[in-house]
Design goal:
The protein is α+β, with helices and mostly antiparallel strands and 318 residues long. It has a single domain, classed as Thymidylate Synthase, Chain A (2-Layer Sandwich), CATH 3.30.572. It is 38% helix and 21% strand. It has eleven helices and ten strands. The chain has a six-stranded mixed sheet. It has a two-stranded antiparallel sheet with strand order 3-4. The chain has a two-stranded antiparallel sheet with strand order 9-10. A hairpin with a 7-residue loop joins strand 1 and strand 2. The radius of gyration is 20 Å and the shape is globular. The protein starts with a helix and ends in a 14-residue tail after the last strand. Pathway: Pyrimidine metabolism; dTTP biosynthesis. Belongs to the thymidylate synthase family. Bacterial-type ThyA subfamily. Homodimer.
Length: 318
């Protein structure tokens, strides 16, 4: 079985050659396949793509945001992470409090109209500044609802109690490693209407064997060019963190995707990436003075010998 970065590149080729042309909620259009699995042996290196540069700090700060149980983008902006901005920005520009120029369909219009794109960037900067400096504004418009952090750390029961799934799964790995119930779910049907974006990575499960911790993610929907490389590295990092806390080595990350797709405006970027030669994977170094997953900060991670090809830019579909 093909593993590692080559498995990811093979998925890209599969979609280009055999993908079904489909419409989607963003109106962009995709080519997709249904039901695909990749495997990454974490002992061979940290699975951050080398055929294009991927920003590790964005991945790590987002994961820490999830782990903290946070759902407000202020923490992300404080760490120069803008990957969730558009969903919060959309809530603001569609509200009665917004009195600026029309931002309807800003995702598409900013790509097609340079004058609009300049105005959009201006409004986005205003929005970010308000999130960072105005507590009331950040509380109202920076929060994305019942997204990953809430489901991982504060899943609400019918009786109004909260379940800390992440803490519980760590306790389960420590105390009953052979259990088949090391599961965290982000898909809470009751809360879907209150999420900025229903969770794409819906459920993950851990597996302990031979002193190693492995993780499998089920992802209902995967933006193969922009999103999936982040998801691979994010869950690999989470596996490293939990293995460290539980005194285990890392095993495999298994990535199972339902709808694996490439957006129609990413096709040329994917073709460029596929022409590049794979390079050796980097290594991940953790600050071993920290033991608990919940104590780590961005400065506690070090990526060693990461030598990727240049980044390839592509628009995000909102």
């Amino acid at each position: 079985m093909v593993q590692g970065e080559q498995a990811y590149l093979d998925l890209c080729r599969l979609i280009l050659e055999n993908g079904n042309k489909k419409a989607d909620r963003t109106g962009t259009g995709t080519y997709s396949v249904f039901g695909h699995q990749m495997r990454f042996d974490l002992s061979e290196g940290f699975p951050l793509l080398t055929t294009k540069k991927v920003n590790f700090n964005l991945i790590a700060s987002e994961l820490l945001w999830f782990i903290k149980g946070d759902t407000n983008i202020r923490y992300l902006l404080e760490n120069n992470n803008n990957i969730w901005n558009e969903w919060a920005f959309e809530k603001w520009v569609e509200s009665d409090d917004y009195d600026g120029p029309d931002m309807t369909d800003f995702g598409h219009r900013s790509l097609q109209d340079e004058a609009f794109n300049l105005e959009y960037k201006k409004q986005m900067e205003t929005f970010k500044e308000k999130i960072l400096t105005d507590d009331a504004f950040a509380s109202k418009y920076g929060d994305l609802g019942f997204v990953y952090g809430k489901q991982w750390r504060h899943w609400e029961t019918k009786s109004g109690e909260a379940i800390d799934q992440l803490k519980d799964v760590i306790d389960s790995i420590r105390n009953n490693p052979d259990s088949r119930r090391h599961i965290v779910s982000a898909w809470n049907p009751e809360d879907i209407p209150f999420m900025a974006l229903p969770p794409c990575h819906t459920l993950f499960q851990f597996y302990v064997a031979d002193g190693k911790l492995s993780c499998q993610l089920y992802q209902r929907s995967g933006d193969t060019f922009l999103g999936v490389p982040f998801n691979i590295a994010s869950y690999a990092l989470l596996t490293h963190l939990i293995a460290h806390e539980c005194d285990l080595e890392v095993g495999e990350f298994v990535h199972t995707i339902g709808d694996a797709h490439i957006y129609s405006n990413h096709l040329e970027q994917v073709k460029i990436q596929l022409k590049r030669e794979v390079r050796p994977l980097p290594k991940l170094k953790l600050n071993t003075d920290k033991q608990s997953v919940f104590d780590f900060e961005l400065s506690d991670f070090e990526l060693i010998d990461y030598n990727p090809h240049p980044a390839i830019r592509a628009p995000i579909a909102v």
